[in-house]
Structure formats: C-alpha cells, structure tokens
Amino acid sequence: MLLRVLRSIFGLLFLAHVAAASAAMEIEIIGAGENQIPVAIVPFGGDVKLAQTINSVVTGDLLRSGLFRLIDPAGKSPHELDEVAYPDWQARGADALVIGSVVMHDKRIEARFRLLDVVKQAEMIGQSVSANSDQVRAVGHRISDLIYEKLTGDKGVFSTRIAYVNKQGKKFSLIVADSDGYNEQVVLAQNEPIMSPAWSPDGSHLVYVSFETGHATIYVQSLYTNQRIVLANFRGSNSAPAWSPDGRQLAVVLTRDGSSEIYLIRPDGSGLHRLTYNGSISTEPIFSPDGQTLLFTSDQGGSPQIYSMPVTGGSQQRLTFGEGNNFSPRFSPDGKSFVYTHFVNGKFYIATQDFQTGQVEILTTGGWEKKPSYAPNGKLILFASEARGRGILATVSSDGRVQQHMFTDSGDAREPVWGPHQ
Amino acid sequence: MKKLLATIVLVNLLAACASEKPKEPEAPAPAPVAEAPAPAPAPEPVVEVDPLNDPSSILANRSAYFPFDVSAVQEADKPMLEAHGQYLSEHPDRKVRVEGNCDERGSKEYNLGLGERRADSVKKMLMLSGAKASQIETVSYGEEKPRCTEHNEACWKQNRRSDIKYQ
Lengths: 422, 167
Known about the structure:
The complex is a heterodimer of chains A (422) and B (167). By secondary structure, chain A is mainly beta. Helices cover 10% and strands 47% of the residues of chain A. Chain A is built from three helices and 33 strands. Chain A has helices spanning 48-65, 86-91, 136-152; strands at 8-10, 13-17, 25-30, 37-41, 45-46, 68-71, 96-105, 108-117, 122-132, 161-168, 171-178, 185-190, 194-199, 205-210, 217-222, 228-232, 238-243, 250-254, 261-265, 273-274, 282-287, 293-298, 305-310, 317-318, 325-331, 337-344, 347-354, 360-362, 370-374, 380-387, 390-397, 403-408, 412-418. In chain A, α1 packs across α3 (136-152). Chain B has two domains: 1-57, no CATH class; 62-166, CATH 3.30.1330.60. Chain B has four helices and four strands, in the order αβαβαβαβ. Chain B has helices at residues 2-16, 78-90, 108-128, 153-159; strands spanning 63-65, 96-101, 136-142, 161-166. In chain B, strands 1-4-2-3 form a four-stranded mixed beta sheet. Chain B starts with a helix and ends with a strand. Classes of the chains: A mainly beta (422), B alpha+beta (167). The A-B interface holds A 193, 195-196, 211, 214-216, 236-237, 239-240, 253, 255, 258-260, 281-284, 297, 299, 303-304, 325, 327-328, 341, 343, 346, 368, 370-371, 415 and B 69, 104-110, 112-114, 116-117, 120, 138-142, 144-145, 151.
C-alpha cells in the first residue's frame, strides 16, 4: 500500500506530509503549534531501508505533535558524534540534532541514536533501541518518545496504540493500530455492528459492544490470546462499557430494568451493582483518573448533557449548559478537565471544559466530529471525523492548534479510543 | 414505505403461485398453506385473507416515525399501532419484534438508549390496544442500522423510526 503525497499551503496553515515506505494510512497535518522546537533529524546510517522507515516514523511523529519544526539536514549526514560540526547546525537554525545508525543482525533491529543539544553542544541522549525484525516502526516510535520526552518534559505517546471500528459496506471490523494509525490488526470482523471499544487500563484487553446476538451485548477480549468472554448479555441493550483505572470493575449501561441506567460490574461479569435510578437515558459513563467520580451523558434535564456523580452513586451534578447538546465525556489524564462532543446548529465539535473554572474551549471547526479521547499524556485528543465523504480518524492538540487527519485505506473509521501507556 | 411493503407482499403472492401467472391482478390471494402448493385455479372459493398480507390494510404499514430526539409515539402513527395491537390481541400466537432506530445526530451510545425508548413506546401503544407483553420483543439499533446514510433531514427522518417485524 502506498502513501500518497499531500503538500500544500493555506495561508498560515500548512499541510505537512509524512513519507513512509509502506503504509495503510494517509496523514495530513493542519496548523502549527506555538514555540516549535527546531530539530534536525539526519537519516540514520547502516541499513538504508530500515533507516528510511525509522526516519519517516520519527519525523512523522514529531510533526504530528505540533511541537517541533523540522530542519532540513541539507547535505550534511553525520552518523557518529565525531562527524558532527555544531556550527553547521547552528547555521541551519536547529536547536537539536538527531543522528544515529541502524543495523539488522540475528533477526533483530538495533538502532543506536544520539540527541544533541546544538546550542550547548552537548549530548542529551545516547541510546540503543532494539526490537524484532518486523518491529521497525516500533523502533521509530520508541526513538520519537525518547526525543519528545527529553525536549518537552512530557511523556511521549508515540508507542501507544489506538482502537477503532472500521465499517466497509456491511462489514464491521474492530481494529487496533499504532498511535499513527499504521500497523492495523483486526481484532474482530463481522456483518453486525460493533461499537464503543474501550481499553483495559493495562492495555491487555478491549471491551466493546457487538450486535452479533441480535441486540447490543458487551464482550471483553484479550489482545494477547484473542479469547473473549461475554461481560453482559441481559435483556435489552448492554452498552457503553468503561474500565475503572484500577482495572477491578467496569461501568456499563443496561436497559434490563427499563430505562438506560449505569451499573458497575467486575471484569469476569460478576458483582453487578446498579448505580443510577434516573428513569431517563444515562449513558457513556467514564471514570476519573482517581477512580472516584463518573462523568456520563444524560437527558434527565430534557436534552443530552454531561453530568458527574460519585462512583458510589448518589448526587448528580450537571456540568454542561447553554445552547446545544453534549455527549461522550472523557477526563483529561490529570483529571483537571474533560473533553466531549458538543452539538449545536447541526454541527458536532470537540470541546473541553475546565472543572475548576468551568471554562469551555471549542477545539475544532465543526462537522461530524465525535467521540474524543485523550492521549495518555493529555497533549493530543483523538476523535472521529469525516473528510472526502467518509469517516476518518483525527487528532487535535489539546490547545487546539494542530490537527491531524488519518485516512484509512478504505471504509469508514469511527469510534476511536486512545490506549494506555504500556 | 407503504408502496415498498405492498410490492413485497405482491412478490410473495406471486412467488406462491410462481408456476402460473395470475390472470387477474385482483384474484383473491391464496391463504398460506402448509401443504404442497398445487397450482391454484383462479376461481377459488372465498378464502379468508390474513389482513397482515393485505397490502391495502393499515397493517401493511409497520413503521412509526419520530421527530429529532423524541421517543413519544406521534398522533399520525396511532391508528396504525392500534390496528397492530388489535391484530396481536386477536392472534395471540403471533409475536413481533419492535426495532428502534435513530438518526446520526447524537452519540452512538445515547442513540442506543433513544432507540430503546422508541421501541418501548411502540410496545406500550401495542399493549394499550390489546397486545400482551409476551408477544412483543424490543431491540434498539441506535444509529447503527440506518435505512438512509446521507447527512440530511430527508434521510434522518427515515432513520428516526420503530419497525414492527412479525416473527
């Protein structure tokens, strides 16, 4: 599968293209962050093909974050420390320089790389990353994480994975992929709808809703063994599962007692415990990072809005007001804000609200933008969008400055959810 | 929709006597027969037609439609639902599955709940007209099985509905 090239300039916005040797994704980056760090990445020495892939992965990762500006090495290609002339890089305006080499031996990839501070003329990282021969992209993502962490002070998320549902005709596939959408793996494929995938906190399992029984049923599936169990298959709809941060229970929505109400259940399907008695629609529960609070969507006030409640049940507090409907809340990893889908005047937007100040920020320009979820470092938000008439995955930086569109090869991508650090 | 159902019923009727073209379009439909279908001669004596198979019956209409984010049965659909409720009460061996659907303007999970309510409100109306709870199964598809997939009201209004499916 070939990556098609996109490059154009729209006034202040720019579209950056990420080249790759082989790919299942086409990626557009729109916008630019503030105070981008200028960094030069020299294609590694050693195995040319591996070096090309690693270079495309690393440059792609850093560009997508919106926090870096790539400086063209323009004819200079040092691979070892003693080949680096710092004035060359100062002249090019780079603050940081990445050099290295990659080799394959005994079916293992070994990449040795250095991150150099051009201004201080000092080495910040000198490290070796190795992996199995089919894991070249993982090597690239690991290097990106190390660079990102060193230069920004935040943990990188490039080695994490995402899950989403792809619909092609009548076929639904549950997919797990790298954070950049590459390296897709099909977890489940069938002709009945699949929705609401969610990760276990350790990334080992997915929980999701499937209609293969004829009605909405919740399954938990291991990503290592592919084995799965039915978590909830009560009368009515069993939906909207979310894992608690300690992994010991899930919040689910059942209609077995009439209206859509929130329940807690253990990962083996035992210990069912009803939390809400609203008699309206209460759905999309999500745990706070400390496990003490749930956010959820409810129409108890007449229209779908976002509410919070203690995980022990009890008093509920409405959090969203004003014009429009609000859905699909998710806590930021630091627990200080939440992201959600805002629907007003026929358009869906991705928005955040600060718990303390109540300040709302609309991060996107609006359209069919749904189902946001934070990267584990809180710096990016993954959501479902639409472009060129089909469903795509998209990210927006949490400050709203940089957006990325990821086009799968075919079909409608939907219901994305960002997995945890592993 | 009415026309579509009428067509389906007509196709079924034609299939039942596939070996022989009906000479008159308004020939009485053969009653569903369990035995091997003999080519039905046209002047069959009066056969009682299951009104469910009569394309001109109100029972041929099996979908109730809803405004945006509403799950209450609309006035326009009440006579049709009452007729189905009455039919079910007169045919206690018949069972239906009521399927609730939504347009795409919500979250998938919220719409699953809304579809459930749309199916439930149809179920309640059927029961008010004599059907028994045991005759009615409900299911919600939320926005997962749209009849029409464009982003416009013409499509959305087709998708905001509950279908009665005889089992």
